[in-house]
Amino acid sequence: MVKNSFISVISQEEKKENSGSVEFQVFSFTNKIRRLTLHLELHRKDYLSQRGLRKILGKRQRLLSYLSKKNKVRYKELISRLDIRESKTR
């Protein structure tokens, strides 16, 4: 697995300052999701990793819906910067 292929949109200074921000959490969940997706392409029957992926996807979805309710501009910017699709609203 190549770890250098993951996105590094947030600089090192921003990581130290804003590690609790919604954007940073969504960024780290996106990296974990991409890493687990690559792992599951090789190991299809790894059911514990599949469960972990579903949990992380749910957490990221909840954070994105929270951000879209609180600040649409930051939400749109984050979606475009991370290159993930827009979530469906109910």
From TrEMBL:
List the Gene Ontology MF annotations in alphabetical order: structural constituent of ribosome
Per the record, the similarity remark reads: Belongs to the universal ribosomal protein uS15 family.
Which GO terms of the cellular component aspect does the record hold? chloroplast; ribonucleoprotein complex; ribosome
Q: Which Pfam families match?
A: Ribosomal_S15
Species, as recorded = Lagerstroemia fauriei
The record's listing under NCBIfam families reads:
S15_bact
Query: What Gene Ontology terms for biological process does this UniProt record contain?
Result: translation
Q: Which SUPFAM superfamilies match?
A: S15/NS1 RNA-binding domain
- Name of the featured protein: Small ribosomal subunit protein uS15c
What the entry lists under PROSITE patterns is as follows: RIBOSOMAL_S15
**InterPro entries linked:** Ribosomal_uS15, Ribosomal_uS15_bac-type, uS15_NS1_RNA-bd_sf
Q: Where in the cell is it found?
A: Plastid, Chloroplast
